[in-house]
Amino acid sequence: MALTLAELSRLTQAIYEDKVVGRIPEAVCVHLMNQYEAERTEKLEQRVHLSGELEAYQQETDDVQQWMKLIREYAKLEELDRPTLLRLIKRIEVGEKKVEDGCTVRDIKIHYNFVGYIEA
User: Fold this and answer.
1) What are phi and psi of 32, to 5 degrees?
2) Would the pTM count as exceeding 0.90?
3) Are residues 5 and 44 in contact, defined by beta-carbon separation less than 8 angstroms?
4) What is the pLDDT of residues 76-97, one digit of tens each?
5) What is the 3-state secondary structure (H, E, C) of the chain?
6) For residue range 32-68, what is the model confidence (pLDDT) as tens digits?
7) 95: which of 22, 40, 44, 107 fits an S-S bond (Cβ 3.0–4.6 Å)?
8) CA distances from 39 to 4, 33, 47, 50, 73 (A)
């Protein structure tokens, strides 16, 4: 049975109270307290992990929305000037020259702001 953090706190308090009034032996109290504390720690770690994932997802969503806004703004762009290039592109990677089927070619990877490299 999965317990919430609030339920674990209530159980911990109830066990402590039962031990104080003599309803349960100290060994049982210690065992249950350790068990509940381990579960509480696991849940707190899981909360931190999930919060980090949620934050990353929200940032990714914001980045995609910013990218879409920029793309809509420049959808009918006919000439690329430096300020526009800097707003849209983070970096351009140009690979080494190589010859394929008698033609000189290079790999070029464009890393866009907000969304990174898009595989073509």
Assistant:
1) -65, -40
2) no
3) yes
4) 888 889 998 898 999 999 999 9
5) CCCCHHHHHHHHHHHHHHHHCCCCCHHHHHHHHHHHHHHHHHHHHHHHHHHHHHHHHHHHHHHHHHHHHHHHHCCCCCCCCHHHHHHHEEEEEECCCEEECCEEECCEEEEECCCEECCC
6) 999 999 999 999 999 999 999 999 999 999 998 998 8
7) 107
8) 10, 10, 12, 16, 51
